[in-house]
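User: Modeling request: complex.
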Amino acid sequence: MQSKFASTLLALAAAAAVAVSGAATARDLMIVGFGGGFQDNARKHLFQAYEKASGVKVKDDVYNGEMAKIYSMVKAGDVTWDVVMVEAPELVRGCEDGIFDKMDWSVVKKDKFIPGGTSTCGAGAVLWGLSLFYDQTKIKNGPTTYAELWDTAKFPGKRSFRSTPKGTLEIALLADGVPAADVYKVLATPAGQQRAFAKLDKIKPQIVWWKSGTQPVQLVGSGEVAYAVGFTGRTVRANAENGDKYPLLWKTLLYSVDYWAVVKGSPNAKEGFKMIDWITDAKPLLALAEDWAVSPANKEAAANPKIAVKNPGMLSSHVADGLFIDTEFWVQNGEDLEAKFNAWVAK
Amino acid sequence: MAISRNNLLAAALIAPLFAVVVASFIVPLAVTLWTAIGNPEVRETLPRTTAALRGWNGSDLPAEAAFAAVAAELAQAQESQSIGPLARRLNFEEPGLRALLLKTARAKDRLSAPYRTSLVELDARWGDASLWRLIARNAAPLTTLYLLRSLDLTLTPDGKIATAPADESIFLALFARTFVISFWVTVLCVLLGYPVAYTLSTLSTRWANVGMALVLIPFWTSILVRTTAWFILLQREGPVNALLLGLGIVDAPVTMIFTRFAVYIAMVHVLLPFVVLPLYSVMKGINPAYLRAAASLGAPPWKRFVRVYLPLTMPGVAAGGLMVFMLAVGFYITPVLVGGPEDQMVSYFIAFFTNQTINWGMAAALACLLLAMTAILVVVARLIVPGFRLGSVSP
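Assistant: Request completed. Predicted assembly structure:
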């Protein structure tokens, strides 16, 4: 993607940086996720627990899913992140681009994952979902479906969506009456894409777009917007902290899997695979589930009845109501739809 | 001998500056320009295919060798995890090609000689000469595609320039928006900064220092902090709305956040010191005798201002205005935090292409065009705005 000339310059710059900082050898294992309540609890039950079990020093960091940082690291040959959490289409594209290592299935046991929990370069971490919510202390009877969310006369106020076509276009089609099973069939056609954008056009002035997962709860909490489609995990946490202000509308669930992947060129790749195997085991995940409504991509943990009762927010209990975000569709159409989506948003 | 020693000494003194300029300005600029026009993907991933396409007439289907090479090279690229950049590059030019390339790569075990039939059976698009023309054309080391797309133009498969589809044409409007916002921010900064600088320049040293501190303390505060402060002030349930509601001026909260109004207010606030400081230093240097002379010759106050004071301060207006304009053109975080989607400027899209779609060609092309357009505007401004020609006082 970048020219040899440019990558040579980047490599030189990186080499200079390494020389100045006194060589990047023998650093701690760096694991990077999306932050939030999951990571705060994973730090204790997965990362530090692994450190204790293996003796390998682990540090963690947070990002918003921007792939550019990982691409530049790999191109410059100065990889400072070892294990990262990524969303499914980014994982597959990154795998094709050679920024993630192929998963070493001789280290990571492949048969422990739920169906769809493994990919060439990734091992399933958790299920995540998006769903509609509002503050029921301010609004008595809010919309319960996406079709109702479009009724601005009955439900006035701003609405907040994630500023990505992934998820938002599906919601528009669901609101327009497309059955969940046909959403991707319709969205694959130019007419279907136009239909989704036309539906969004109807409420465009009422939309506030969010980028980071912390925003939906903030926007609804501050009254800036009346309704938001946000990550279920954050909503569950906000309910735990603020006393169930936000009813979870599971019928509006869209869900997918986040994966663990090893960054190509990581000096700790071997350790990385070992760690991924450990933190995807049922035992630490069940310990994590004691503190946090996690929806693990591990078969045994997901099927454990105790955590399903303890965590009503667990996605695996609600997937029957939800729409699975089609990874393959977004790998094939993501770039094109992102360009169109951004052009539409800015108009 | 002595001269050459002096020369050496001078060179040694200049060397650090030269190194900094090269490392922090010339090299990044060259890399950016190169990224905007570089076209390495097809050359690097499909070398044998492009070699086989050399000498092809471009209208019939190419020879079997090209089909065999493309099947082998795509499969190999997928195996070595290097198919992504190629797929992204061709898909950017023609949506749908990513799917075709990956499908072909995955089908390697089902493909066999003669590949001409085998590939067309797999997907009819391989039997379309325009796809092969697209590949052959992109064997060239440079491309104008990114620059054209940044100007709402595109290339047809045959390499002709055409207008981009309406649902992707946003960039001309985006550049216009960027310059319009920057222009009004500059005008507002000059109009607001001028009286402030004038007042400061007439105060006694002690009060001038106090006034200066009031200008400088926000100037030294991080842009992020100041922008976030505006976010808090302007939000729906924020203090400004509370005040308006409390005073009974409005009945319902006014939408101020995520609007163009919020962008203007926050950008002007952030950039105001950049016009106050140069104006103040110019105003301090004006000899009051000129104004007294004008008064003694019978000029009324407005005439003294328009004919004497204003022309004398024009260099400060020009320097401050130019600085504000240049900074405003590149603004990113302020519109992102307090503006709506219709208020985003070019930088937002540069960040989008860099982070989101990893299309660094587009990011670099937008950056180069923004730089070029700004440079042209500055040159034009130098020609038409007085005061750029240093110290010139128009008659």
